[in-house]
Amino acid sequence: MKRIITYGTFDLLHIGHIRLLKRAKELGSYLIVGLSTDDFNKIKGKQSYMLYEERFEVLSSLKFVDEIIQENCWEQKEFDIKKYDIDCFVIGDDWKDKFDYLQNICEVIYIPRTVNISVVIQKV
Ligand code: C2G
């Protein structure tokens, strides 16, 4: 069966993340999540409320997540897809077209994003 990979920050895990991960796992039999490190979040310009270790602990509790690796940079996806023998790269359609370049090494699927829920950190 297919090996799937997806990437993200997954801060304050919510229904949008859960649906994405569940749908990704349904496409195959093994799901790897590339979890953005705190340093990579800085590069992404994304602040997360939870530290990497906390976000890792939360994701690890999900039955449909089989493995978690660090996402340290934008450029690691091709290496990961080859290293982990990935058949399908999955991500939300807010990234539509952005990862089409991976189509020469695996299937690329954009899953509809769950609307009206996101993590917004208010600067106090
Ligand atoms: N997502 C979703 N619905 C939401 C929010 C997020 O489907 N309401 C999906 C996103 O499309 C993404 C995944 O959940 O596929 C994780 O979302 P984020 O943690 O916001 O990740 P992001 O910042 O998009 O990082 O290299 C890829 C990046 O690391 C993706």
Helix and strand string, N-terminal first? EHEHHEHEE
Oligomeric state as shown = single chain
Query: Total number of β-strand segments?
Result: 5
Straight-line N-to-C gap: 47 Å
Number of domains: 1
Fourth-tier CATH superfamily name: HUPs
Radius of gyration: 14 Å
Strand residue percentage? 15-25%
Task: Determine the structural class based on helices, strands and strand pairing.
Answer: alpha/beta
Which small molecules are bound? Answer: [cytidine-5'-phosphate] glycerylphosphoric acid ester
Mean pLDDT: 96
The description of the largest β-sheet is: 5 strands, parallel
Describe this structure in words.
The chain has 124 residues and is α/β, with parallel strands linked by helices. The protein has a single domain (3-111), classed as 3-Layer(aba) Sandwich (Rossmann fold), CATH 3.40.50.620. The chain is 28% helix and 23% strand. It contains four helices and five strands, in the order E-H-E-H-H-E-H-E-E. It has helices at 15-26, 38-44, 52-60, 77-83; strands at residues 3-8, 30-36, 67-71, 88-92, 107-111. Strands 3-2-1-4-5 form a five-stranded parallel beta sheet. Helix 1 (15-26) links the parallel strand 1 and strand 2. The termini are far apart. The mean pLDDT is 96. Residues 7-10, 16-17, 20, 36, 46, 71, 91-92, 94, 113-114, 117-118 line the site of [cytidine-5'-phosphate] glycerylphosphoric acid ester (C2G).
